[in-house]
């Protein structure tokens, strides 16, 4: 089965893996033949999900880490060194999304802005920086940064999140330039509004806006996104780097 062989033998680190898209990426990568280290701050969710996957015979391990803390990222690197010594792929999915919208730019809390930028932008940079030595030891390292189509169409009353995802797009291009000499590809994936735990708070009218504005007019599910992530992690994407792929049913065309 081609999907099973797609990531056969690959070692993948996935942040934000305890729930939502991060968990769906984890399961998809495992089912495609990879071994996955799950990273998240949500200890109870992470432990429960990892142990459930292990009970199915899937090679998932986990480490609890707050990616706003450089020392926590150092511990992830130590875990990778001890367990694997190299990494084939990294998905940077961890992000602060819940409770960061609904306020216009004139009234946004500067402390919340800083928190969003620290986790979503700085955390992505530092996590990638920590994994580069291990990605270099792979024949073809892969980095997939999870952005958002909010940065492509300019979602209102979501300023910090939208700005942070715009930064992911820009960082992805810079990373691709710097890491290309090591045969490491760096791409971003921009999902639309997806039905996961983090979007449960999003008002119904925003969901309707997305559904009605898509070329494919239905709600977006996590599994709609995971196939593209697997492609970018795989050998099929060996000459694709510095690119952003919107996966949103045609709400935004690239």
What this model shows, in words?
This is Short-chain dehydrogenase. InterPro entries: NAD(P)-bd_dom_sf, Sc_DH/Rdtase_CS, SDR_fam. Belongs to the short-chain dehydrogenases/reductases (SDR) family. With 254 residues, the protein is α/β, with parallel strands linked by helices. The chain has one domain (11-247): 3-Layer(aba) Sandwich (Rossmann fold), CATH 3.40.50. The chain has helices at 2-6, 20-31, 43-55, 70-83, 110-136, 150-153, 159-179, 204-213, 223-233; strands at residues 11-15, 35-40, 60-64, 89-92, 142-146, 185-191, 244-247. It has a 7-stranded parallel beta sheet with strand order 3-2-1-4-5-6-7, sandwiched between helices. Helix 2 crosses helix 9 and helix 5 (110-136) runs parallel beside helix 7. The longest helix is centred in the middle third of the chain and has 27 residues, at 110-136.
Number of domains: 1
Question: Given the helix and strand composition, which structural class is it?
Answer: alpha/beta
CATH architecture tag: 3-Layer(aba) Sandwich
CATH homologous group name:
NAD(P)-binding Rossmann-like Domain
What Rg do the Cα atoms give? Answer: 17 Å
- The CATH class assignment is Alpha Beta
Q: Per the principal axes of the C-alpha atoms, what is the gross shape?
A: globular
Tally of contiguous helical segments: 9
Family: Belongs to the short-chain dehydrogenases/reductases (SDR) family.
Protein name: Short-chain dehydrogenase
Organism: Ignatzschineria indica
Keywords: Oxidoreductase
């Amino acid at each position: 089965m081609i999907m099973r062989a797609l990531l056969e033998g690959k070692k993948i680190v996935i942040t934000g893996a305890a729930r939502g898209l991060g968990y769906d990426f984890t399961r998809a990568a495992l089912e495609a033949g990879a071994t996955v280290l799950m990273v998240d701050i949500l200890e109870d969710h992470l432990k429960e999900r990892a142990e459930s996957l292990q009970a199915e015979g899937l090679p998932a391990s986990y480490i609890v880490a707050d990616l706003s803390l450089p020392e926590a990222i150092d511990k992830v690197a130590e875990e990778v060194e001890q367990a694997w010594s190299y990494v084939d792929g990294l998905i940077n999915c961890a992000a602060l999304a819940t409770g960061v919208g609904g306020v216009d730019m004139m009234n946004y809390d500067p402390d919340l802005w800083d928190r969003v930028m620290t986790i979503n932008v700085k955390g992505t940079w530092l996590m990638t920086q920590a994994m580069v030595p291990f990605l270099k030891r792979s024949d073809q390292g892969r980095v997939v940064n999870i952005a958002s189509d909010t940065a492509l169409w300019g979602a209102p009353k979501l300023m910090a999140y939208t700005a942070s995802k715009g930064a992911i797009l820009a960082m992805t291009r810079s990373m691709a330039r710097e890491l290309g000499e090591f045969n490491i590809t760096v791409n971003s994936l921009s999902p639309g509004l997806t039905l996961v735990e983090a979007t449960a708070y999003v008002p119904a009218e925003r969901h309707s806006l997305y559904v009605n504005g898509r070329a494919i007019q239905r709600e977006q599910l996590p599994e709609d996104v995971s196939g593209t992530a697997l492609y970018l992690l795989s050998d099929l994407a060996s000459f694709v780097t510095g690119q952003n792929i919107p996966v949103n049913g045609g709400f935004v065309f690239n």
